[in-house]
Amino acid sequence: MEDQEMQLKVKRVTDKFTESMYVLANEPSVALYRLQEHVRRSLPELVQHKTDMQSWEEQSQGAIYSVEYACSAVKSMTNSSLYFKSIDGLLRQAISMKEQINNSQGRRKRTMDPGMLKEGGEKHSSGM
Questions:
Q1: Could you give the count of Cα atoms lying within 13 Å of 71 in the half-sphere of its Cβ?
Q2: Closest CA relative to residue 111, chosen from 97, 99, 123
Q3: Cα–Cα dist 39/31, whole Å
């Protein structure tokens, strides 16, 4: 009989001890301590990830700006084809006028009389 009573008392003590340990383990201050430990261990890694992400964001923003600038430059180049055509036409006109001037000066030189040269090798002025 004493054995059964002793076993019953031991069981009650162990149950109370288990219940006390369970309450103690789940006490809010212990939970906050565990939370603090977790934050202390994981925070440096999270900070490193944050700085890496900020760096990547800056790099990507720079790349996006460069691409947008290049796109606007290409668009402005396609819009400038009208101006290039106008410049091409004006250059062709200038070349044509220069050739006409050269041809008219060449004819004048050929039509000039060799006797019109002075003895010093100078040309008489022809009014131009």
A1: 6
A2: 123
A3: 12
Instruction: Supply the pLDDT for residue 1.
Output: 65
> pLDDT per residue over 9-65, tens digit each?
999 999 998 988 888 777 777 778 888 999 999 999 999 999 999 999 999 999 999
Contact 118, 110 (CB under 8 A): no
| C-beta atoms surrounding 105 within 10 Å | 11
pTM over 0.70: no
Residues forming beta bridges with residue 123, ordered by sequence position: 117
The predicted-structure confidence for 92-107, as pLDDT tens digits, reads as follows 999 999 999 999 888 7
**Which structure tokens are listed for 17?**
């001890």
Query: Which residue type, as a one-letter code, is found at position 35?
Result: L
Give the DSSP H or E segment for 114. none
Hey, is 96 helix, strand or coil? helix
Phi, psi of 123 (to 5 degrees): -90, 150
